[in-house]
């Protein structure tokens, strides 16, 4: 039959710890603090995720430059025209990338429309694709 430890040890001086000197100091628990983390308490600290030493490196922060592929922009032109975020002059669609929150235009994808794009910077492939489709890449 199970026994409640609280009532079992009530009135006992040491509660099953042997003599009164046995639980003194840090030696009874294997040292104070994080001691033994690489030795006798390794599995305990490994399970908790506590590690010692250094590992790997801290990379430099990447630039916060927002980019967009010219092919994605070409596919978005119909919806951007409906939202009046871009303007159309004849068959040329004028796009101000700063209005879209984009700093740099990259060269991924296909360009099917004549685009007049103004942005802070362009990749060489993006500039080539825009001009091959009859558009213009203008740096602000």
Descriptive keywords:
single chain; 140 residues; alpha/beta; Ribosomal Protein L15, Chain: K, domain 2; 2 domains; 4-stranded mixed sheet
What does this molecule look like?
The chain has 140 residues and is an alpha/beta fold. The protein has two domains: 19-57, no CATH class; 67-139, Ribosomal Protein L15, Chain: K, domain 2. It has helices at residues 5-8, 42-48, 70-82, 97-100, 124-132; strands at residues 67-69, 87-89, 92-96, 104-106, 114-119, 121-122, 136-139. The strands form two sheets. The chain has a four-stranded mixed β-sheet. A hairpin with a 2-residue loop joins strand 2 (87-89) and strand 3. It is rod-shaped. The relative contact order is 0.11.
SSE string, helix = H, strand = E? Answer: HHEHEEHEEEHE
- CATH architectural label of the largest domain: Ribosomal Protein L15, Chain: K, domain 2
Beta fraction:
15-25%
Task: Tally the structural domains.
Answer: 2
Helix percent band: 25-40%
Strand order of the largest sheet: 2-3-5-7
Q: Could you tell me the number of beta strands?
A: 7
CATH class of the largest domain: Alpha Beta
| Rg over C-alpha atoms, rounded to the nearest angstrom | 34 Å
- Round the mean pLDDT to the nearest integer and report it: 90
CATH fold-level assignment of the largest domain: Ribosomal Protein L15, Chain: K, domain 2
Terminal Cα span: 84 Å
SS-based structural class?
A: alpha/beta
Backbone shape: rod-shaped
Summed up, the helix count is 5
Unreliably modeled segments: none
Largest pleated sheet: 4 strands, mixed
């Amino acid at each position: 039959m199970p026994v409640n430890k609280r009532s079992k040890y009530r009135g006992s001086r040491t509660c099953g710890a042997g003599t009164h000197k046995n639980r003194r100091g840090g030696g009874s628990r294997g040292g104070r603090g994080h001691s033994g983390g690489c030795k006798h308490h390794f599995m305990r600290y490994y399970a908790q995720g506590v590690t010692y030493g250094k590992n790997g490196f801290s990379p430099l922060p990447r630039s916060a430059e927002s980019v967009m592929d010219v092919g994605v922009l070409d596919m978005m032109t119909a919806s951007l025209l409906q939202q009046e975020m871009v303007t159309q002059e004849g068959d040329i669609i004028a796009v101000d990338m700063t209005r879209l929150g984009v700093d740099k235009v990259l060269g991924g994808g296909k360009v099917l429309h004549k685009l007049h794009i103004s942005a802070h910077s362009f990749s060489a492939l993006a500039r080539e694709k825009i001009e091959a489709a009859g558009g213009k890449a203008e740096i602000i």
